[in-house]
Amino acid sequence: MIQTVLTTLVEVIVPLSIPVAAGALLGRYKQLDTKPLLTLYLYFLSPAIILDTLATADISFDDVYKTLAFSLMNLFLLWGVATLIGKMLKLAPPEAAGLTLISTFTNSVNYGLPLVLLAFGQLGLDKASIYVIAQMVIVNTIGVYFAARSQFSVRSAVKSVFSLPAIYAAILALLLRALGLHMPHELASGVAMAAGAYSPVVLAILGAQMVKVQAAHTERNVQLAFWTGLTVRLVLAPLLAALVLLALNITGTLFSVLLILASMPVAVNSVVLAERFGSSPALVSRCIVWTTLASFLVLPVLIAAVGG
Question: Model-level pTM?
Answer without folding.
Answer: 0.81
